[in-house]
Specification:
about 190 residues; alpha/beta; Spore Coat Polysaccharide Biosynthesis Protein SpsA, Chain A; two-stranded antiparallel ribbon; 6 helices; about 30% helix; globular
């Protein structure tokens, strides 16, 4: 299974590219790369920015620009069409650990699976079957770009992480306040 890190967001609320923002002296995406590398050997960065070259991983540009996360999922599935499924993770969730990724992988059973914590679904951390590529194409043609709409239309297991883990590893960075809160939790 191939792994894809979503690093294509506009980062409007935080004012700079989140994946490259330094967190305890390291680019935020580097935490995700290190964590994912414990479970996957083929890792790709989904981005239209050449500045991600520094991580020496293949960069995959959007097939169709300006479609948000659903477009990134579409790009990943197009890239990995011969795979049964792909793993995706957003670049702005640096608290994720190898045990969280492994928990998803262990519970994957031939249908989409996404993480949740205390009933909050995290569609950008999950495993998606490439057989859903035609549905993604249809949703894009119809301009239905919400990830939750896609999840609701597919056989998707929502995996509750609070049953196994005692903290929310999916806190993401959208604002300067989010960044400060996560920075306090990251050990330099």
């Amino acid at each position: 299974m191939k792994a894809y890190i979503l690093a294509g967001g506009k980062s409007i609320r935080i004012g700079e590219d989140k994946g490259l923002k330094l967190l305890a002296g390291r680019p935020m995406i580097s935490y995700i790369i290190d964590t994912i590398a414990t479970s996957f050997t083929e890792i790709f960065i989904l981005s239209n920015q050449s500045s991600y070259d520094q991580f020496q991983l293949p960069i995959i540009a959007d097939e169709i620009k300006e479609l948000g996360p659903l477009g990134a999922l579409y790009t990943a599935m197009k890239h990995a069409e011969n795979e049964e499924a792909i793993f995706i993770c957003s670049c702005d969730t640096p608290l994720i650990q190898a045990s969280h990724i492994q928990y998803l992988v262990e519970n994957y059973n031939a249908k989409n699976i996404v993480a949740s914590y205390n009933a909050q679904i995290h569609p950008l951390i999950g495993i998606y079957q490439t057989a859903h590529l035609p549905l993604l194409e249809k949703k894009i043609q119809q301009q239905e770009l919400k990830m939750m709409s896609f999840i609701e239309e597919t056989a998707t297991l929502i995996l509750p992480f609070e049953k196994k883990f005692n903290f929310n590893p999916f806190q993401n960075v959208n604002t300067p306040v989010d960044f400060e809160q996560i920075q306090k939790q990251i050990q330099p």
